[in-house]
Fold:
Amino acid sequence: MSVTDSATVARPHRSRFRGLRRANLILGAIIILALVGIAILSLFWTPVPPAKMQITHKLQPPFGFGLLGTDQLGHDVLSMLMAGCWNSLSISVSAVAIGGTLGTIIGITAAARRGIFEALIMRACDVIFALPPILSAMILGAFLGTGRTTAILAIAVFMVPVFARVALGSALQAWSRDYVLAARAIGNTQLSITVRHVLPNIMSGIIVQATIQLGLAILTEAGLAFLGLSVPPPEPTWGRMLADAQTYFHAAPWLALLPGLAIALSVLGFNLLGDGLRDLLDPREAAR
Structure:
């Protein structure tokens, strides 16, 4: 087979692969936009107030009483899922925003300073990595009490070293580029070069990382809520819905399946969106 024939054969495969990556981006965006819409809608309307108990209608199956049934206290499951969507997304987005901002600042600062400062930052990141978010939440909960703030801080602390490492690696590459060397040659300060040249050129990687970490943040928040370390009752969360459903799994399996599906769908959406954005924003991926 000639080189021309090989290129002809490879072109349709490459085209299909690009179409698949574009489909991942579109599907992920649709899932996340739908979840954001549900979360915002829950602030203004739910079929039934999420905290309203209807004991006479407890453990009703889907379509038996309400669209998705009721739990052991007669709470409307659909309303709880909608309100839980807001709690999960708001906590996760806040945590990733805080952790991502702090981690990016630390990473680009370490790349600019180098030397002992960079080494200290990396060792500190290793220490934080050794403490899982659940343990961090338990430690913070002992001082701050359980609640939304504790969950946000626990997840954010774990996110800081992730973004610091990503920002450091990308920034070190940027500092070796010709345009940065030219800026240094004409006397620009480290701060000026970092803000004007380095940061804009690593933002695409930071955005992709933030999108992917949002999926992990939702999983972590669900774990914290499962242990009672997130938003306290009566506000619903997907993780606490799973915890409450353990006792009633054989009698009412939908109480565990529905919040579990909501968590899985959210994580899938953010992973698809992150993969699609990576392919879209990374020119090296686009060229493959």
Observations:
- The radius of gyration is 23 Å.
